[in-house]
């Protein structure tokens, strides 16, 4: 689904087809891949007898655990509040393993949640994203300026500027309002296209 690809600048391939949706999302994929490879190298040094497949899977397992830790320790606590996360037992265990697993509960996500409720994340996205270098804003770009064209990652220090921008740019409030960049331009193939993010929910 990429636009304006060239021999030197191509879109990225990942386990999720939405990897190229916008540059900031692509940057997070790149960071997680680099973390996976870093872990695989360290595991290989400790376990030289492991096969490539074992190294891949074990590093993948650790990255998955890191993502879960970020989600449950930081993101959900901020989004839902400490009271709700404690009420529903969503906080990570301080030691040992989670003991409340119930084999009879369907762990799949309900279609209504995937299609509608999780759209609250879209309300968090700002209209513009700052690009930073060493604490100083070097530029700013509209979120819609790079839908399906994450080529800024090919620029010198592009990844660093994007990641620092993600850390420093404030999100919008979680509410029913979604900015017009997300609603009117995310799936726009040409000016005047009627397909929007909200049409898909």
Structure commentary:
This protein has 201 residues and is mainly alpha-helical. The protein contains seven helices and two strands; from the N terminus they run αααααββαα. The protein has helices at residues 23-46, 52-80, 82-87, 111-115, 120-124, 158-168, 180-184, and strands spanning 128-133, 136-142. The chain has a two-stranded antiparallel ribbon. Strand 1 and strand 2 (136-142) form a beta hairpin. The radius of gyration is 19 Å and the shape is globular. The relative contact order is 0.13. Residues 190-196 have low confidence and may be disordered.
**Helix-strand pattern, N to C?**
HHHHHEEHH
Number of helices: 7
Approximate strand percentage: 5-15%
Give a count of the beta strands, DSSP E runs of length 2 or more. Answer: 2
Mean pLDDT: 82
Classify the secondary structure makeup into a structural class: mainly alpha
Characterize the overall form.
Answer: globular
Radius of gyration: 19 Å
End-to-end CA span: 20 Å
Strand order of the largest sheet: 1-2
How would you describe the oligomerization state of the chains in this entry?
single chain
Q: Which ranges are low-confidence, i.e. pLDDT below 50, for 5 or more consecutive residues?
A: 190-196
For the sheet with most strands, the description reads:
2 strands, antiparallel
Helix content: 40-55%
